[in-house]
Structures are given as structure tokens and as C-alpha cells.
Amino acid sequence: MASVVQAAIFNERVDVFRLYDALGLSYQGERTQQTVCPNPAHRDTHPSARLYAETRSVYCWTCQRSWDVVGLVRLRLGGSLEEALVWLQARFGVPTSTIPGAPRPVSLAGVADHVERAVLAARDTLGRARYVRYLTALDLTLARVKDGRLSEADARSALETVYHHAVHADR
Questions:
Q1: Distance from C-alpha of 56 to C-alpha of 106, rounded to nearest angstrom
Q2: Dihedral class, residue 95 (left if φ above 0, else alpha if ψ from -120 to 50, else beta)
Q3: What is the mean pLDDT of residues 18-40?
């Protein structure tokens, strides 16, 4: 099973402009960062979206949706999380191990941020009760780590579960 930690690594390290180029999408210069919506269902002809280098994401004002690096690959290529991670690894070769010289491992806070973005992105399809339940689970997991009641490894596992259920919720 693909790891939410791996997804968080790609979301932290892949430049959204390079990703747009790799996906064959265009934008109007790095200064304006305007682009047509990447969502094929939108059929945008005028720029209604913007690329955000700081958050490595794109937001469409018409759709009122945003996509991170992994979400953008999944949207454009129509694959699973696992397939998106394989494609990103092949294209960008981002190290996901802790071998000497490799970038630092993603912090637990980085993983939690990724899980929170996934839950927020799925809020419309989750329904209010599930949405609140997943955000509560996320908050409880982080509180238990802070209090020392949960190891970082167990927290990562709990966050993986929250992420998996939020992303794969019955739609």
C-alpha cells in the first residue's frame, strides 16, 4: 500500500511548475502563475486557476478546488495513489529513504498537514459527520503524540488510517 508519508514527501519537494511542464500543462509565466483549470471536467478556456509555488499547489476559482502535487498527478493521469507515486518517482526521482545525502525525512507535522489537506479536499463527499470524525481523529492523534502517549511510529500508522478512509470514502 502506498504511504501517506511518501505522498507528503513528494508534496513537499516537487516544484509545481516543473510538474505542470511534465504533465504537458501550460501557465502564463512564473510571475502571474495563471493557468487554465487542470480539471478535465471543467473544460476551462480562460485562466481561472493559479499555481502557488509556496504550497506547491494549484487552485481553481471557478471549481473552488485545489490540488497538491500528488492530487494533480492523480487528477490528470486518472490513477491510484500508488500509481501517482510511481509516476512521480520516475519523473522526479525524489529520494524517500534516509540514506546519507538524501533530504531529511518528512516530519510528523508534515504528514499531519498532508492528511488534513486530504480530509479537507474530500469534505464535500464525506458528509458532515464523517468529515468531523476524521478531523477529530487527526487532532486526537497529534495530541497523544504531544502528551507522549503515542509513539511517532504509531501516530504515522494512525494518520495513514485516517488518510486512507478519507480518500477512499464511499462516494
A1: 15
A2: beta
A3: 83
Give the separation between CA 22 and CA 25, rounded to whole angstroms. 8
Among 110, 106, 77, smallest CA distance to 91 is for 77
Query: In the chain, where does DSSP find H-type helix?
Result: 4-13, 16-22, 29-32, 69-77, 81-92, 108-121, 123-126, 128-146, 152-167
Mean pLDDT in residue range 31-47 = 84
pLDDT at 101: 41
**Backbone phi and psi for residue 168, each to the nearest 5 degrees, phi listed first:** -105, 25
Q: What is the band of 73 on the pLDDT scale with cuts at 50, 70, 90?
A: very high
> CA-CA distance, 150 to 10, in Å (whole number)?
26
The reported pTM is 0.59
Number of neighbouring beta carbons within 10 Å of residue 91 = 14
